[in-house]
Write a structure and sequence with these properties.
The complex is a heterodimer. In chain A, helix 7 runs antiparallel to helix 8 and helix 8 runs antiparallel to helix 9. By secondary structure, chain A is α/β, with parallel strands linked by helices. Chain A has one domain: Rossmann fold (3-Layer(aba) Sandwich). Chain B is elongated, with a radius of gyration of 17 Å. Chain B starts with 5 loop residues before the first helix and ends with a helix. Classes of the chains: A alpha/beta, B mainly alpha.
C-alpha cells in the first residue's frame, strides 16, 4: 500500500477510536466550559471515607480537577480510618465559611454522619453553607437537617445506592452551571441509562429498576441553585 | 528475523503495553493510599495525570506506528488481522486513558 494511504488509514482509525471512546465512556458533555461567574466567591470542601486505595485514588482524580477549576479554593480530605480528619475538615470549613459567601460541601463517603461534625460550627457561619452533596447510602433523609443547619440545597440517595454513577454525571453538570434540579434530573436519567445497559450486558442478572430505586438522587431546598448564582 | 518483522512486533507491543496503565494506576493508588503511603496525597493527582498522559501517548504512537508499518510492508491479508486483533484494541484502550485524562482536568 502507498505510504500516504497507510498514513491516512492510521489517522482515520485514531480519530474513530477517540470518537468511540468518547461516545461509549462519555456522557454527552464533550466541550469544556469556562468557570461560571463569581468563582472568587466560591469555596469547596470534600471528604472521602476510608475505602480501598483504588477507590480513594479514583475519587480524588475525578473530583479534584473540577474543584480546582471551578472554585476559588478547595480542600480535599481522605480518611485513613473512621472519624479521621475531623479537626482538619472543620478547620478548613471554618476558614471557607469565614472567607467565602458560597461554600459547597461534597461528602464522598458511605453512610455517614458528617452533619454532626458540621453542627459544631457556629450557626452564623453555617448560613454560608450553600450546597451539600452526599454520596452516602440511605443519607437522603439527612436533607432537612442539612437545610436546618444552614445549607441552601442538599442532594442525597435513598437506599443502598450506586452513587458513583450519579456523581460522575452530576459533578460535571453542577460545575458547568446547571441548576440543582437540572443536574439531578439529567444525572438520574443518565444513571438509569447506564444501569439498563448493564442489565442488557449481564443478560438480566442485574436489575436496573431495583438499582434505580435504591440510587435515584433527590434534592431538598432550593432546586434552582446554580454554581454561578448570586450569594 | 526480528528486524524483518518489526511491524508485527510493534503491533503486539502496542497491545501488551495496555497493561502498563493498569499497573500504573494500581501503583499510584498504593503509593498514595496504601498501608504505608510514601508520596503525599497532594502529589497523587499531578503525578497520575502525567503518568496516564504518557501511557495514552505511548499507546497511540505504538498502535499508529504498527498500523502504518503493517499496511506499507505486508500484504493486506497479513496486515488486517494484526490491525484488528492488536492495533485497534490498543488504540481504543489508549483513547479511553486519554479521555480519562481530559475528564480529570475538567476539559473533556
Amino acid at each position: 500500500m502507498k505510504k500516504g494511504h497507510a498514513a491516512l488509514i492510521a489517522l482515520t482509525l485514531t480519530l474513530w477510536a477517540y470518537a468511540l471512546a468518547t461516545l461509549t465512556v462519555g456522557d454527552g458533555m464533550i466541550r469544556a466550559a469556562s468557570a461560571a461567574p463569581g468563582r472568587e466567591l466560591r469555596a469547596a470542601v470534600a471528604i472521602r471515607d476510608d475505602v480501598t486505595p483504588f477507590q480513594k485514588w479514583g475519587t480524588k482524580m475525578f473530583t479534584w480537577g473540577y474543584l480546582r477549576r471551578y472554585y476559588d479554593v478547595a480542600w480535599y480530605f481522605t480518611q485513613s480510618r473512621e472519624n479521621d480528619q475531623e479537626e482538619s475538615l472543620l478547620a478548613s470549613l471554618n476558614i471557607a465559611l469565614e472567607r467565602y459567601p458560597q461554600v459547597d460541601v461534597f461528602l464522598l463517603a458511605h453512610d455517614n454522619r458528617y452533619l454532626n461534625w458540621v453542627a459544631a460550627l457556629p450557626a452564623e457561619r453555617r448560613q454560608r453553607l450553600r450546597f451539600v452533596y452526599n454520596t452516602g447510602c440511605h443519607n437522603q433523609p439527612q436533607g432537612p437537617r442539612w437545610i436546618t443547619l444552614g445549607a441552601d440545597a442538599y442532594v442525597g440517595h435513598p437506599g443502598y445506592s450506586l452513587s458513583p454513577f450519579f456523581y460522575y454525571y452530576f459533578l460535571r453538570r453542577w460545575t458547568r452551571g446547571h441548576t440543582i434540579q437540572e443536574a439531578t434530573e439529567e444525572s438520574n436519567r443518565l444513571m438509569e441509562r447506564a444501569f439498563k445497559t448493564w442489565e442488557r450486558l449481564s443478560f438480566g442478572r442485574v436489575n436496573a429498576a431495583h438499582l434505580m430505586r435504591e440510587s435515584v438522587a433527590a434534592y431538598h431546598g432550593n432546586d434552582q441553585l446554580r454554581l454561578g448564582g448570586l450569594p | 528475523m526480528m528486524m524483518r518483522y518489526w511491524q508485527i512486533f510493534v503491533a503486539i507491543c502496542a497491545l501488551l503495553f495496555q497493561t502498563v496503565p493498569v499497573l500504573f494506576i494500581r501503583l499510584a493508588a498504593r503509593t498514595a493510599y496504601g498501608e504505608s503511603p510514601w508520596i503525599p496525597e497532594s502529589w497523587v493527582w499531578p503525578v497520575s495525570l502525567v503518568g496516564l498522559t504518557l501511557c495514552a501517548m505511548i499507546g497511540i504512537t505504538l498502535a499508529n506506528g504498527a498500523i502504518y508499518g503493517l499496511l506499507t510492508r505486508f500484504r493486506l491479508r497479513v496486515a488486517i488481522p494484526f490491525i484488528i486483533l492488536c492495533c485497534i484494541p490498543a488504540l481504543i484502550s489508549a483513547m479511553v486513558y486519554l479521555r480519562a485524562v481530559l475528564v480529570f482536568v475538567a476539559l473533556g
